[in-house]
Design goal:
By secondary structure, the protein is α+β, with helices and mostly antiparallel strands. Helix content is about 35%, strand content about 20%. It is a multi-pass membrane protein.
Amino acid sequence: MDQTLSAKIRFAPLPYVLIMDGEVRDDNLDKLGRNRFWLRSQLRQRGIRSFKSVYYCSIDRRGKLYIAR
């Protein structure tokens, strides 16, 4: 690959999946130093009361949550 082209490409780490099909991924929460209480709080701030009602939830490297219901 051309040096100038490779210098312009930046790779961001993939987001961590926190919930998939209503199931919490505790392993990824542990990697982030977070727990279910923190996640529940984040969801409640967005009007979501149950993990089961979330199809997919992830967090990017900037700490932004993406939630699909």
